[in-house]
Amino acid sequence: MRVEGKAVKFGDNIDTDVIIPGKYLVYTEPEVLAQHAMEGVDPDFSKRAREGVVIVAGKNFGCGSSREQAPIALKHAGVRCVVAKSFARIFLRNAINVGLPVVEADILNEVDEGDVIAVDLSSGAVADLSKGFFKPIKPFPDFLLEILRDGGLVEHLKKRGFGK
Known about the structure:
globular; alpha/beta; 7-stranded mixed sheet; single chain
């Protein structure tokens, strides 16, 4: 499974309140949440993300509350993958559950805003196609790739006959 998009950079400790501000948690529609993704730090993010982006961030991405609306907002805004030095564990699991690929790789200082980033989850690689660098990552296990390919855990379980 391979994803690709232009890099949008953020620093360390990007918390779920920044990813989707609390005042928007009254909405349940993914498209509405997407319109407000990252607006506290980048008011134009949702417009830029529509073309398909890869967020590149520092450490502790997704810290804060355990709201699953955060990865939902990013996914529906057009984020194809989040690459960060580290993730808050609950965010990482919520992201996989909603079908948003997230990988740990420390590339923030090697990437420029707008570089084309490719992530191969199957073979285990992150590449900056604009600069020509490659960084190995741990490949995703097959069961996680299946969940991501199916669009998240709920869709994965439906596909396998659960919930009928």
